[in-house]
Design the sequence.
């Protein structure tokens, strides 16, 4: 069980939760809305774990994980989980993600007669499962072409918070752009940190992430750009919300951790030092989402 928990990569799960919280902020917490949020959270977490398992599977099959890897040992790389067992787990998790998403759409769309919206969201959900798998798994994975940042921003930054916002309101408010700018790029920052840490081993195995393409110095500057947009988005969210203790705390906390994090990253001189910042960004984004939830 410990190996399966490690394969799920618990430190990434606060990000999936954060995307849901940013979509749910400001709602009326009645029974229906609470049910929709809980179902959205379960779907997001299931997809995140499915993606993590698929990443373990794909990188092992493609030779990107070996003993020279800086980060925590992967379960298939270490031989702790067999390919047969991981394949079964992927099928179960993929199917579970689909069922949870279907139940979410049933309560939020079918029960209110929005059948066209249901078909659109169902298609997006199926595409999200495909994208979670094809990041590093399957033939010609897009993560090996430097497209991981784009897909993470698309599905975790846009689809999750904006999709949930629509399911709760049946409309899109302009502030969703600011929410996407903050939580979407925070998710991308975690992936980019991971890729900067693994830059040398990825390059040696043909995994051409953005970090590999840009090199050590320019990758750090791109990370700084991501963080700067997060800072601007957090300021926009504060000034667009009703000033309250929660909004002030959200703004102050977000500015504090982002500025400190960016200073640390820009000063890093060795790839292995990026690993410690992964947990910092994931947990800080999660804490920011809790504060914004009550704005």
Sequence:
């Amino acid at each position: 069980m410990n190996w399966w928990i490690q394969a799920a990569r618990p430190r990434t799960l606060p990000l999936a939760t954060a995307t849901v919280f940013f979509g749910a902020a400001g709602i009326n917490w009645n029974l229906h809305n609470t049910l929709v949020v809980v179902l959205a959270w379960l779907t997001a977490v299931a997809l995140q774990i499915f993606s993590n398992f698929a990443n373990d599977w794909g990188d092992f099959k493609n030779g990107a994980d070996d003993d020279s890897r800086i980060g925590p040992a992967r379960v298939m790389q270490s031989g702790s989980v067999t390919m047969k067992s991981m394949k079964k787990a992927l099928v179960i998790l993929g199917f579970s993600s689909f069922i949870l998403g279907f139940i979410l759409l049933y309560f939020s769309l079918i029960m209110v007669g929005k059948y066209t919206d249901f078909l659109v969201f169902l298609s997006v959900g199926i595409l999200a499962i495909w994208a979670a798998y094809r990041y590093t798994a399957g033939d010609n994975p897009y993560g090996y072409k430097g497209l991981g940042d784009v897909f993470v921003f698309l599905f975790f930054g846009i689809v999750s918070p904006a999709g949930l916002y629509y399911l709760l309101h049946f409309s899109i408010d302009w502030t969703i752009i600011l929410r996407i700018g903050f939580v979407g790029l925070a998710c991308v920052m975690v992936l980019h940190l991971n890729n900067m840490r693994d830059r040398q081993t990825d390059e040696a195995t043909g995994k051409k992430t953005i970090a590999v393409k840009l090199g050590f110095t320019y990758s750090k500057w791109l990370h700084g750009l991501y963080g700067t947009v997060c800072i601007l988005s957090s300021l926009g969210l504060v000034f667009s919300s009703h000033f309250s203790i929660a909004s002030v705390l959200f703004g102050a906390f977000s500015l504090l951790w982002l500025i400190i994090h960016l200073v640390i990253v820009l000063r890093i001189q060795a790839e292995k030092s990026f690993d410690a910042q992964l947990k910092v960004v994931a947990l800080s984004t999660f804490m920011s989402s809790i504060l914004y939830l009550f704005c």
